[in-house]
Amino acid sequence: MLLARADQVTRRYGDVLALDRVDLTVRAGEMVGLLGPNGAGKSTLMNLIVGLRRPTSGRIELFGGDPRDPASRRQLGMTPQETGLPGTLRVGEVVDFVAAHYPDPVPRGELLDRFGLTDQVRRQTGGLSGGQRRRLAVALAFVGRPRLVLLDEPTTGLDVEARRTLWDAIRAFHADGGTVLLSSHYLEEVEALAERVVVIGHGRVLADDSVDAIRSVVGVRRVGFVADELPALPGVVRSELIDGRHHLLTTDADQLVRDLVVAGVAFSELEVRPTSLEEAFLAITAEERPRDEPPVTATAGR
Ligand SMILES: Nc1ncnc2c1ncn2[C@@H]1O[C@H](COP(=O)(O)OP(=O)(O)OP(=O)(O)O)[C@@H](O)[C@H]1O
């Protein structure tokens, strides 16, 4: 069953094209990671799905209806990228306030325990640490026993322990049958939680595949060397010539070096190094595709 769907969704902010004909589906029981660099369009997509904004064109469905209709949002939980909590309210009061909107909320003690906030129940939210405040903001998405939860960069700014606590809570929700769409800059976070990854860049879906398949693409290596003419080489995702130095991006650097030797390329100053996620995104993004061609699959270039 489809819980959320974006169909050819475009969103503009004035001259900025934040989303460009994006398709996305989230099925019941899935944990989907939305991965992309700053400004890719992740928050915009989430805000459209929860009905906070309208698409410029295209269509969004939430639980089969229009997300701007409150009835479509009854089984939804959401934590936006930034949440303002009333500083003088206590943690327990904030939870009770949100819980009062739902017919069968998670009991306060159980929720706070799940998110490692039991000791803070009487603390005013203004006195919480940044990490505690963030955990509370994420916990609030789960109060109403939603079927679908959208978390926009849930662990940004958290230390390792707080991040683990949040991951455990999100995993427990999913293990109970809950559906999750979460955005992140971090491949590590998406790997830890999601089964499916949608890579988004410059407002477009660049890949939509399993975590393993995406990892093999973003696990691209950069092989740099100096040489004259290069023959066509298999397995090269992208190549550049900068100041007389070749830079080849590949998923199998060992094989590429063997191919260089076999082809008799007289190379020097060889250097092999991992690419950052950012570079890998750029490699996928930079592929000049005709605008009507479907997104590259994560296995392209292997
Ligand atoms: N309210 C707005 N007005 C104008 N431009 C906006 C607005 N919101 C977003 N944008 C622009 O739309 C693009 C996509 O932004 P969005 O916040 O969706 O990206 P993101 O992937 O969530 O980025 P980040 O990881 O930095 O949060 C960016 O170029 C951003 O500057």
Automatic annotation (TrEMBL):
Domain ABC transporter: 4-227
GO molecular function: ATP binding
Positions of the UniProt region annotated as Disordered: 65-85
InterPro entries from the UniProt entry: AAA+_ATPase, ABC_transporter-like_ATP-bd, ABC_transporter-like_CS, ABC_transporter_ATP-binding, P-loop_NTPase
Highest taxon of source: Bacteria
Primary location group: membrane
Membrane protein topology class: Peripheral membrane protein
Cellular localization per UniProt: Cell membrane
UniProt keyword list: Antibiotic resistance, ATP-binding, Nucleotide-binding, Transport
Keyword Nucleotide-binding: yes
Presence of keyword Transmembrane helix: no
PANTHER family: ABC TRANSPORTER ATP-BINDING PROTEIN
Official protein name in the record: ABC transporter ATP-binding protein
